[in-house]
Amino acid sequence: MSGVLAGFFIVWSIIGVGWIAGRTGILGPHGRYVLNRSTFFLCSPALVLVGLLDSELAEIFSAPMAVAGISGLLTGALLLIGIRLFTKRRGAELVVTAISGSVVNGANMGFPIAAYVLGDISHALPVILFQQAIYTPLYLFALHHVTQKDAQGPAGILRSIGANPTIIAAAVGVTLALLHVRVPQVVLDPFQSLGDMAIPAMLLAYGLSLYGSKPLAKDDGYRGLIAVASSAKLLAMPVIALGVGLALGLRGAGLYEVVVMAALPTAQNVFVAAARYRAAENLARDTVLITTIGTVLVLLLISGVAGI
After folding, report:
1. Range of the domain at 8
2. What is the pTM of this model?
3. Exposed, middle or buried: residue 76 (CB in 10 Å: 0-12, 13-18, 19+)?
């Protein structure tokens, strides 16, 4: 399991640099704000666009992507229904809890884990493509809808779409991929450069947010939601992925791969989105923290059970 530890070392190292930057103040009082907005409006849309343009239709419509999609959406839906039925939480808190428990850290954790544990980074692509093309635009739209007063009716829906560059990037990327349009490399390179900034910027912004914070603070009132979201991400989602994979005929190594991908921690871009909309930021931040720590144990358990 050296691959698991290597992947987490990379992630925590960059987060640590962000924490040091926050402690020393080298990025100034607005460093986190600038990083979050740069990621949301520039780097993440570029990452989505480049990722989709580099994909093949076979990757987009594959069984592993179906597992990633069904397990992610089903886990998020179960969280939405359960929290709505058994608590009084509504609006942004409801949405942030659901996505914190169902959005996988497929890029900066998925690639290292796929490379070192599964032996091929391509195993991370179905998860990343699903989240870039479908889930990220969907939850950004939901967050915009519950936090913005102009998000009502057909006109509000159009404004929600226009206000999220990731939605536009996903639509453009999927369309060009389906039409087999090959964008010249000289045109693609600037987007690639911006996309390469997305993951480090997310991790740095997250590290900045940890400085001076008190994870799981009682005053936030999020401890219960964090526990529910973390449990769903670390336990429920891999079990659902296992069931979906079996139903789709996956066995052996193929089944192991989709379960490992489902067990990855909550993505930092959930925190970036929550920060962008000023919606339950501490809930997203602490769920990322808990799941990033807990995933090590879950992956070790999965590997032990699978005998790998």
Report:
1. 2-306
2. 0.77
3. buried
Stated length of the chain: 308
Per-residue pLDDT of the chain (308 residues; tens, 9 = 90+): 565 666 677 778 888 999 999 999 999 988 888 988 888 789 888 887 887 787 666 666 688 989 999 999 999 999 999 999 988 888 889 999 999 999 998 766 776 677 667 766 667 778 877 887 788 888 888 888 888 765 555 565 566 566 678 778 878 887 888 888 888 999 999 999 998 888 888 888 878 888 877 778 787 788 999 999 999 999 999 999 999 999 999 988 889 999 999 999 998 889 888 988 888 889 999 999 899 889 888 988 887 776 55
The domain total for the chain is: 1
Whole-Å CA distances, 222 to 13, 133, 225, 228, 241? 27, 30, 5, 10, 27
